[in-house]
């Protein structure tokens, strides 16, 4: 159990992060956590899965930059966690950069960054515009759309599959498996579907290398074998579909629901990039993650974090820590990139420039195609998908005038 200055934490003290109530209003939950526990909060990621949620910005920066005290390797932790646990697929050990440390981490990260850095940004922008055009074309004459299912998700999926050299048939299976894992619904089966699909992609690109991220990673001097390659792809798909989908849809929601922001955007007083940065501060698409597993008890402030129990960074709560935001006007967040949405330290997201470009290009295309667009329901009727890790809308229904 976590021992604090106030005594041992019992299971009843732990805040559940998996409930629909938490998904509906996480910021109210973070405020309550802060008032009762301070920066380090006992939580449950799933029934019977305890963890510490870090909601203080300075404490998170320390933890993210001390990989020797807070390594990302969960192998000791997962020995006591059954394969049927709904959050295990998002947390378990894989031979990839996200779940490794020291030399293994350096080898995997080098292969990832080298392959991603070779993506031509001009070609990527053209690709996103083409995919966004195809998505918009399907609902242009309907006068209504769901910007999650009809726009954000197909763009994230098709752009990433193209970058990775993944055919649609394999990509569909990957998307299904990844959605099950993020939603923590039938996550064990989703993990199996995902594993087989990425193995099929690796086998295809071994036989038929091409000019894509997967083939370049295979050719990297790090010499990744097929198993290691499959797990790099799991990480790339995990970071490239759900979070990018949520970044696009959450930013569209911000533009559509905030009249002041929308007016400034249309008057060229702010930009889509400003909207993205505001959302990355206030409602980052991956709200709680960057998980580490201390190999020994470690003290942070007045809290002793237990060995081999997950420590989860709440990017959403840390970005909105009153110690960080006190005195800042809401518009001060536009263009401010001090947030933790891309993590920090040795596990900083290597594809943040790609994610920015994809989201900015897609949203700009949508606003150009449909400059007059409104929510089809009241903002309070929008529903958020439960889950301890993501900040994800179930749907984002909109209406707009059809072209004559």
Would you summarize the structure shown here?
With 404 residues, this protein is of the alpha+beta class. The chain has one domain: Cytochrome p450 (Orthogonal Bundle), CATH 1.10.630.10. The strands form four sheets. Strands 3-4-5-10-7 form a five-stranded mixed β-sheet. A three-stranded antiparallel β-sheet has the order 6-12-11.
Features:
alpha+beta; 404 residues; disordered N terminus; three-stranded antiparallel beta sheet; Cytochrome p450; 12 strands
Please characterize this protein's 3D structure.
The longest helix is centred in the middle third of the chain and has 21 residues, at 187-207. The model is unreliable at 1-8 (pLDDT under 50). The strands form 4 sheets. Strands 3-4-5-10-7 form a 5-stranded mixed sheet. The protein has a 3-stranded antiparallel sheet with strand order 6-12-11. Strands 1-2 form a two-stranded antiparallel sheet. By secondary structure, it is an alpha+beta fold. The protein has helices spanning 20-24, 26-37, 57-64, 75-78, 88-91, 102-117, 121-139, 147-164, 168-183, 187-207, 213-218, 226-240, 242-257, 259-266, 272-282, 315-319, 322-325, 352-369, and strands spanning 3-4, 7-8, 15-16, 40-46, 49-54, 144-146, 288-292, 298-300, 303-305, 311-314, 374-375, 397-399.
């Amino acid at each position: 159990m976590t021992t604090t200055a106030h005594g041992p934490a019992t299971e009843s003290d732990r805040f559940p992060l998996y409930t629909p109530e938490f998904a509906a209003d996480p910021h109210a939950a973070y405020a309550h956590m802060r008032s009762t526990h301070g920066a380090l909060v006992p939580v449950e990621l799933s029934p019977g899965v305890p963890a510490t949620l870090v909601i203080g910005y300075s404490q998170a920066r320390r933890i993210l930059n001390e990989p020797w005290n807070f390594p990302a390797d969960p192998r000791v932790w997962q020995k006591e966690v059954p394969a049927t646990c709904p959050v295990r697929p998002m947390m378990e050990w894989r031979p990839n950069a996200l779940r490794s440390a020291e030399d293994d981490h350096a080898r995997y990260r080098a292969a990832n960054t080298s392959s991603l850095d070779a993506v031509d940004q001009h070609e990527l922008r053209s690709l996103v515009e083409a995919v966004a055009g195809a998505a918009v074309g399907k609902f242009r004459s309907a006068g209504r759309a769901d910007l999650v299912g009809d726009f954000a998700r197909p763009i994230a999926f098709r752009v990433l599959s193209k970058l990775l050299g993944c055919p649609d048939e394999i990509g569909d299976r990957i998307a299904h498996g990844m959605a099950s894992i993020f939603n923590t619904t039938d996550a064990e089966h989703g993990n199996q579907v995902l594993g087989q699909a990425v193995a099929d992609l690796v086998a295809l690109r071994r036989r038929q290398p091409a000019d894509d991220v997967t083939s370049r990673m295979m050719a990297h001097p790090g010499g990744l074998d097929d198993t290691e390659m499959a797990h790099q792809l799991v990480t790339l798909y995990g970071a490239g579909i759900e979070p990018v989908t949520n970044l696009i849809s959450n930013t569209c929601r911000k533009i559509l629901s905030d009249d002041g922001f929308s007016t400034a955007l249309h008057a060229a007083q702010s930009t889509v990039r400003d909207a993205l940065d505001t959302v990355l501060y206030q409602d980052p698409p991956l709200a709680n993650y960057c998980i580490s597993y201390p190999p020994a008890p470690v003290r942070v402030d007045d809290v002793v974090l237990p060995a081999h129990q997950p420590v989860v960074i709440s990017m959403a709560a840390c970005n909105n820590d009153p110690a960080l935001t006190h005195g800042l006007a809401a518009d001060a967040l536009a263009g401010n990139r001090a947030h933790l949405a891309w993590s920090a330290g040795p596990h900083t997201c290597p594809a943040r420039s790609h994610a920015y470009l994809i989201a900015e290009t897609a949203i700009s295309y949508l606003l150009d195609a449909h400059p007059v667009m409104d929510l089809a329901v009241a903002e309070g009727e929008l529903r958020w998908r439960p889950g301890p890790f993501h900040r994800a809308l179930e749907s984002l229904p909109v209406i707009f005038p059809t072209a004559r």
